[in-house]
Amino acid sequence: MSLINFSNLDFDQIKQSIVDHLRSNSTFTDYDFEGSNLSVLIDTLAYNTYIASFNANMVSNEVFIDSATLRENVVSLARNIGYVPRPKRAARAAISFVVSFDPDGTKPVTLTLKKGLVAISAAATGTRTSTFVITKDITVPVIGSTALFADVEIMEGVIIEESHTYDPNVRDPRIVLNNPNVDTTSLEVSVRTNSSTVGGDRFTLINNLFEAKDIARVYFVQEVQDQRYELIFGDNIFGKSLAAGNVVDCTYVMSSGAEGNGIRGFTFAGNLIDNDGAVITEGISPIETIAPSVFGEDIESIDSVKKYSTKVYSAQNRAVTAADYEAIVPTIYPEAEIVSAYGGETLDPPQYGRVFIAIKPKYSQYMTDLDKRNLITNIRSYSVSGVDVSIVDMKFLFIEVESQVYFDSSKISSASALQSLVIDNLNAYAKSAEMTGVGTRFKYSKVSNLIDNTHRSVESNITNVQMRRDLVTTTNAVATYEICFGNPIRIMHEQTNYNIRSSGFTLDGVDGTVYLGDIPSDDGVEGKVVAFKLVGNNESQVSKEVGTIDYEKGEIMLFNLQIESTSKELNGSPIIEISASPESNDIIGLQDLYLQLDVSNSDINAIVDRISSGSDLSGATYIRSSSYFDFGEKLIRN
């Protein structure tokens, strides 16, 4: 048999190689392999070779973190470089309720809500029941005839308690939790001397050896097989070690992760006792939901482990480069969905010695001030001395498209049906990895091709693009605003009409609703921003200059404006929508700009292609569409 070609991994190819080898022997020159019993033996040899080749290929793939596909292998390879995948996180909600007593009767001094089950609720889908717990007793005083349990944080899941006896003489003396789906942030570990001892020493979870002193009561966790977790204790050099017979008591919340999010209605199911130990079952008010359940997360995916494990390893528990910050922040602030870090030297003007970190949380647009302060405190232990770290809010750059889709009416039922298909495709693209994050790019050709391939009836499309920023304003106060698009703005009108549009707002000392426009300078690089009103269909400037615009940088500055009100709001905050046409239809989410395709504010029109449909072969009634977005026809944003 020829040993030159080792690339045949297909069964038929392997079988043919065996047949070719046998035919090279003069004994089998004219032998009918397919019609003989020898064919069974050849099939067996081919199958054996095929299976061996497949196993060898899988084994070689599973050795490397880039090509491994089994979670256990990916986690094991990540563990070798000190990375612990993010575990499941229980959803958290805030509730309040009141317990009332008879004003004329005997009332207790205090009331205690016992650790464990507190509330039950149907999940957001209505297909299952979720349980919510607290991990510690909560005691409140009885004031007058009521006891108020206010802003109680409850966690989705069930509390599990288990004990493990340490025996160093067994073959595998590991301490492995019995269950998967553990929220390790809720894990509490204590160690008793032996099984007859009451109470034990509390041990603390740590993430690196720098926190482990010689007799410190600390432990590590690492994911092992079946998404369970092993507890690793010290050796009296780094942390206190376990002794033979020690009993390790573990308490944790086992959660369903992201499935617990979005729950708003709760029914009380907890255990209340008074200071005398009596159980309270009456006078409990309905539960008031202060905040619905959020922050539930599934265990870190295989792709995420591959992405972040190598980045965290390269950072080596220190933050020097921007990539180091982007790798470390998700490990100390798991609620971060998108992280973008950049040095102050990249700004204009430069701010040397500063690092800016823009973060978008998973369940809101902006971080709270408390979260920012806590993150800065935690990240200082990683950053280089003398570097000032600033947490900034992520800014959102919206992309709106105006597409004229030409179609053959003989191949689809209606224009509205095609319009719905195009919108569905754009929504799917908007949620893809290409369009969710910082440093991503809106690819015009891909979107145009996506529209063309929506349905076989589509003949062509003419799609125009504009970008939009939502300016959150401070009302009834003089303020200066900076609006950055991060992409050059296209000058379409030099003297007449405007190159930017805005939604309406009112200014102090000016009657009626005003809007923003621009007038470019002679060099076409910069210009001034003006405010104008609409009188009928005509515009009338009320201020010759309220700011400046840099077309090449894509920056707008508004100076000393006292805005009284705006025509639009976002989550209760007054905003002004400002849009412009980009110089390039490929738009980039730069630095702290989070790119989003806003399909809801896009305009999709389906137009019958009369030539392709055969209704007008001469093209005399063909409807033309402009390839440019003309702000001259639309001075304002409605």
Provide a descriptive summary of the structure in words.
It is a single chain. The protein is an alpha+beta fold and 638 residues long. It is built from 9 helices and 35 strands. The radius of gyration is 33 Å and the shape is globular. 30% of the residues are buried.
Map the helices and strands.
Elements: H1 11-23, H2 38-62, H3 71-79, E1 92-100, E2 110-113, E3 116-122, E4 129-134, E5 138-141, E6 146-156, E7 158-165, E8 175-176, E9 182-192, E10 201-205, E11 218-223, E12 229-233, E13 247-254, E14 267-268, E15 272-274, E16 279-280, E17 288-294, H4 302-315, H5 322-332, E18 336-343, E19 354-361, H6 369-379, E20 388-393, E21 395-407, H7 415-430, E22 441-442, H8 444-452, E23 458-472, E24 478-484, E25 500-502, E26 505-507, E27 515-520, E28 526-535, E29 538-550, E30 555-566, E31 568-570, E32 573-580, E33 587-588, E34 593-597, E35 603-608, H9 610-613
Parallel strand pairs: 10-11, 19-20, 21-34, 21-35
Antiparallel strand pairs: 1-6, 1-17, 2-5, 2-15, 3-4, 3-14, 4-6, 7-13, 8-12, 9-10, 9-13, 11-12, 15-16, 18-19, 21-23, 22-33, 23-32, 24-30, 25-32, 26-30, 27-28, 28-29, 29-30, 31-32
Helix pairs in contact: 1-2, 3-4, 4-5
Helix content: 10-25%
Measured between the Cα atoms of the first and last residue, the distance is 77 Å
Mean pLDDT: 85
- Determine the structural class based on helices, strands and strand pairing: alpha+beta
Low-pLDDT ranges: none
Spatial ordering of strands, largest sheet: 7-13-9-10-11-12-8
- What is the global morphology? globular
DSSP E strands, number: 35
Main β-sheet, in a few words? Answer: 7 strands, mixed
DSSP strand content? 35-45%
Counting DSSP H or I runs of 4 or more residues, the number of helices is: 9
- Specify Rg, calculated over alpha carbons: 33 Å
